[in-house]
Amino acid sequence: MATKFNLGKLSERELKALKRDVEHELKTSRARTIAAATKELQDAAQKIAKKHGLPVSEILSRKRKSRNSPVPPKYRNPNDPSQTWSGRGRRPGWFREARDKGKSAKSLEI
Questions:
Q1: Residue 93 near residue 76 (C-beta atoms within 8 A)
Q2: What is the pLDDT of residues 33-58, one digit of tens each?
């Protein structure tokens, strides 16, 4: 099924064009696959909804709890109260500076 090419005989311009065409075809092929899978899922959802006597929209529109819900701030910059930090992720510069100057994390808590 795969056609063999002697890539060594192609110029740089031809190779770049071939690469561009292949990348485009890969994207198009993936989009077709996703569309087919989506259609299959929708058909299955309709079948299940009908079996249970429910509208599909009610089944598919269920609210899910967000994984990345915001975390309330735990620390506040004493020099600029508008700057806060939840204690997660990278430490902000003001927090590191305060710690370097001898302040404890406890003293920066809200």
A1: no
A2: 999 999 999 899 999 999 999 888 88
Identify the residue whose tokens are 């990278």: 90
10-23 average pLDDT score: 94
**What is the DSSP secondary-structure string of the chain?**
-PPP--GGGS-HHHHHHHHHHHHHHHHHHHHHHHHHHHHHHHHHHHHHHHHHT--HHHHHT-----TTPPPPP-EE-SS-TT-EE-S-SSPPHHHHHHHHTT--HHHHB-
For residues 98 and 88, give the distance between their C-alpha atoms in angstroms, rounded to a whole number.
17
What pLDDT was estimated at residue 53?
A: 92
- What is the distance between the alpha carbons of residues 92 and 75, in angstroms, rounded to a whole number? 10
Task: Give the separation between CA 82 and CA 61, rounded to whole angstroms.
Answer: 37
Which pLDDT belongs to residue 3? 75
Residues 69 and 75 sit within 8 Å (Cβ to Cβ): no
